[in-house]
Specification:
This protein has 156 residues and is α+β, with helices and mostly antiparallel strands. Helix content is 24%, strand content 33%. Strands 6-3-5-4-7 form a five-stranded mixed beta sheet, with helices on one face. It has a two-stranded antiparallel sheet with strand order 1-2. Helix 3 runs antiparallel to helix 4. The N and C termini lie far apart (41 Å). Keywords: Acetylation, Hydrolase. InterPro entries: Acylphosphatase, Acylphosphatase-like_dom, Acylphosphatase-like_dom_sf, Acylphosphatase_CS.
Length: 156
């Protein structure tokens, strides 16, 4: 019997890597600010990483926004929170995501307006591979002077 190969399975449509066998790592993550790390991010997020900013990138004249959201449909038990966190990080958006007791997923997004809009569209139409989104609602959108979160976190 041949042993399993340790490697990374990529899902190009989702931009996420899966390791096989589970728990195995093929290689350490790329160094912070490297070109390899910046690949797969939006141009703004890649530019920030390459510049060593490490945080949310902002285009000239573009302000920060905060928006609350709730996603309805088959969004629990399908790794929706994990994929939302990964997509938020890829786009350079911070905030949080959690399951609710009534079967939805809620959270908050903060970042440059264009990046937040891109994540809103992802929440409306894409989600995790096994999810089925019936609708996404966005409320309390406001301009903010500074980010209130350091990262994109999953709340229990």
């Amino acid at each position: 019997m041949k042993p399993f190969a340790v490697g990374v399975l990529l899902s190009p449509a989702r931009g996420l890597a899966r390791h096989w066998p589970p728990g195995a790592r093929a290689a350490p993550p790329p160094a912070a600010g490297s070109v390899a790390q910046a690949r797969g991010r939006s141009n703004r997020a890649a530019a920030a990483a390459a510049a060593g900013g490490g945080g949310v990138a902002m285009a000239a004249g573009e302000g920060l926004v905060s928006v609350d959201y709730e996603v309805f449909g088959k969004v629990q038990g399908v790794f929706f929170r994990k994929y939302t966190q990964a997509e938020g990080k890829r786009l350079g958006v911070v905030g949080w995501v959690k399951n609710t007791s009534h079967g939805t997923v809620q959270g908050q997004l903060q970042g440059p307006m264009a990046n937040v809009r891109e994540l809103q569209e992802w929440l409306r139409k894409t989600g995790s591979p096994q999810s089925h989104i019936s609708r996404a609602e966005f409320r309390n959108e406001k301009k903010i002077e500074a980010l209130e979160h350091k990262d994109f976190t999953i709340l229990k």
